[in-house]
Design goal:
Strand content: over 45%
CATH class: Mainly Beta
CATH topology: Lipocalin
Distance between the termini: 41 Å
Strand order of the largest sheet: 1-2-3-6-7-8-9-10-11-12
Number of domains: 1
Radius of gyration: 19 Å
Shape: globular
Largest sheet: 10 strands, antiparallel, barrel
Length: about 230
């Protein structure tokens, strides 16, 4: 027997509320724009403060870092900050290139929610880089793009989300006192899995156009993973 209109409305509202709570994204958006980590951005963001441990790998180079994200009470604006260590591959004059500190920051503006709030859209822009150390040049990258995400509740207090983000990445490097710049179109894809209401994991990949010899920017696909906790 079908539910009367009033009860159907209540049931639909309850389902949407349960989805929003279960997929409140306690781990999303806590990966800043650090070198050798993928540019992962979801169309959803968790309200309040989230902290994360991040790992990235690209062409033999690795990145380790901490990140924190804050999203406004209305879940419309997110600010992400990160710091860590960049461990490059390769050598110079027979000596292994030194590890260096890395930094990153990103701002994301959440857009409309579609399909009963299961689909979200966001615009984002960020900055990341590593400072000069010895003969190793400084590197700065500025990505900006759009993200679309889909989320689905799994039981009570858990959920998954898949998302993709095409973006343009502009990079600058200063080897031997000569500044070089370049821009590339890239795309990333990620998967978030909520282990508990406050704890979750993220895995993702970034690929697309690669920098030519002598130009700054990624020269390989970038892989990453993170573990995050939401203080809410």
């Amino acid at each position: 027997m079908p539910l009367p209109p009033s009860r159907r409305g209540v049931r639909r509202a309850a389902a949407v509320a349960a989805l929003a709570l279960a997929c409140a994204a306690p781990w999303r958006g806590a990966a800043a724009q650090m070198i050798a980590t993928p540019v992962l951005q979801n169309g959803f963001a968790n309200r309040g403060l989230t902290a994360a441990l991040n790992y990235g790998s690209s062409g033999g180079s690795r990145s380790y870092g901490l990140a924190a994200a804050y999203t406004s009470p209305g879940s419309t604006l997110s600010l992400i900050l990160g710091a860590g260590v960049y461990d490059p591959s390769g050598s110079l004059d027979g000596e292994a290139l030194p590890s260096r500190p890395s930094y990153g920051a990103r701002v994301a503006v959440m857009g409309p929610r579609l399909m009963q709030r299961r689909v979200g859209i966001a615009a984002f822009a960020g900055v990341g880089g590593i400072p000069k150390k010895g003969d190793s040049p400084s590197v700065t990258t500025l990505p900006a793009g759009l993200a679309i995400g889909y989320r689905q509740a799994i039981g009570a207090g858990r959920g998954i989300s898949v998302y993709a983000a095409p973006f343009y990445s502009w990079s600058r490097s200063s080897p031997a006192g000569v500044t070089t710049t370049g821009g590339l179109f890239r795309v990333s894809a990620g998967l978030d899995v909520g282990l508990m209401p406050r704890l979750g994991v993220t895995v993702g990949v970034e690929t697309g156009a690669k920098a030519r010899a002598g130009k700054p920017g990624p020269t390989a696909s970038v892989f990453g993973a993170g573990l995050a906790y939401a203080f809410r």
